[in-house]
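Blinded run. Sample ID left blank on purpose so nobody reads anything into the name before looking at the predicted structure. Input follows.
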Amino acid sequence: KRLIILGFALASFNAQSQSILNGSFESTNASTSCNYNISNATYNSAMNNSTAFGLYQQTDIVVSVVHPSIPDGQFSVGIANNPSNNLEGEAISLELSAPLVIGNAYEISFRAYANTDFGPQGDLVIGVSTANNSLGTVIDTANTVIGTWTSFTVNFMAIDNSTFITVAPVQGISSWNFVDDFSITEVCTATSSTETITSCGAF
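Blinded prediction complete.
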């Protein structure tokens, strides 16, 4: 019995070792009126635990008074490709509370909205990175839906001790997407001599 309890305690501890520090973009000093087409420097000074690093440098901090259907809170973020050169895109990173553990399995969840007011729908790539200004390793592509906030989940196994989740538009399409409500879950398995316990901690 002691072994089983200890295994469960270790699983629960491991499952709560990472969170996304500002996954809904609510920790910000951005204006609650309009924050469209802002430079990387302006975004980075306004948004805590998140960094804009794309070449296009026109990131949007979208507010609920402009886009009232934001899923969680009053802020979301818009990222796009340059309409004049769709190989130049915006990109953001989101800081984790602790590094990923190599070999552990994780699930990222988030929501995205494809806005086609100024161009066609385009997908998003999700990555994990050890630096806040690099896309890192791409772990999935999200097929966003026009005019609808859609929920996505990404399952992956950590291959390094990344400390950032990254998001960028797929190159080659003059797309514009909003993103919000990011969270990460670590999937842990603790095994004792008599029982295997699987514990998932959500944030």
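Unblinding after everyone has recorded impressions. The radius of gyration is 18 Å.
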